[in-house]
Every structure is written in C-alpha cells, then in structure tokens.
Amino acid sequence: QVQLVESGGGLVQAGDSLRLSCAASGRTFSYVLGWFRQAPGKEREFVAAISWNGDSTYYVDSVKGRFSISRDNAKNTGYLQMNNLKPEDTAVYYCAARDTLFSSGAYYTRRNEYPYWGQGTQVTVSS
Q1: Residues 111 and 35: beta-carbon distance below 8 Å
Q2: Tens of pLDDT, residues 48-99
Q3: Based on C-alpha coordinates, what's the Rg of the chain?
Q4: How far apart are CA 7 and CA 78, in angstroms?
Q5: Which of these, 109, 119, 115, lies nearest to 34 by C-alpha position?
Q6: Of 36, 60, 63, 102, which one has the greatest count of Cβ atoms within 10 A?
Q7: Quick one: pLDDT at residue 29?
Q8: What H or E segment, with its residue span, contains residue 8?
Q9: Residue 14 neighbours by CB distance under 10 Å
Q10: Rounded to 5 degrees, what angle do the CA atoms 25, 63, 113 make?
Q11: Is 83 helix (H, G, I), strand (E, B) or coil?
C-alpha cells in the first residue's frame, strides 16, 4: 500500500513561487508520480507527471514554462516547482501515483489511471 502526503501549499501573490512536495511511503521508485489540481466548482484536472526515473515529464499546456516536476527516489519524494503563479492556479493540489513496473514514459493524465492519492494541499494566489 502506498501513502502520499503533500505539503508546501500556501497563500502567495501573483508572480510568486511555491514548491510542493509529495512524500511517499513504501517503495515507489517504479511509480509514475502525477500532480492534479481542483479549483472550487471545477473538475480535478491533470497538471504534470514524471516517469519513475525522471527521464520523462509531461505538462498540461497552461503550466508549461512555469511549473517543473521532479523527484528524488532516494528520499521517496516528488516535487512540483511552481513559478510565476497566477490567480487561476488557485486550487487544491493533489499528488498521485501509479506503478508502471519501470516502463518508460509519463503520459498518464487521467484520474482513473492513478490508484494512489494524497489528501491535497491548498494553493491560493491573490492578484
């Protein structure tokens, strides 16, 4: 069983940066890690994903060039660096994991592709 705990959310101003962390319990180094977000009244949407070895990443268009996903398998932790934040980035951010048995690629963008989820961390960006 994999457990995920997010941290690093907060209240910032437009243009600021935040780094979210996702600490995983268990051996997750064969897992794709993904980040999703859910704004009030909206569906949970895909943000970014990274392959088990970090060689592949994938981003939703709206965050390309501003967000960067990474991972440290030695620490069982994933990260989402968010720069130049905008008010429309306000949401609860969730990390998710899927065992890919060391297969390459990070193109997992649908909620039902991830069996493991964290509890979420709130990110609020004021204008």
Answers
A1: no
A2: 999 999 999 999 999 999 999 999 999 999 999 999 999 999 999 999 999 9
A3: 13
A4: 11
A5: 109
A6: 36
A7: 75
A8: none
A9: 13
A10: 45
A11: coil
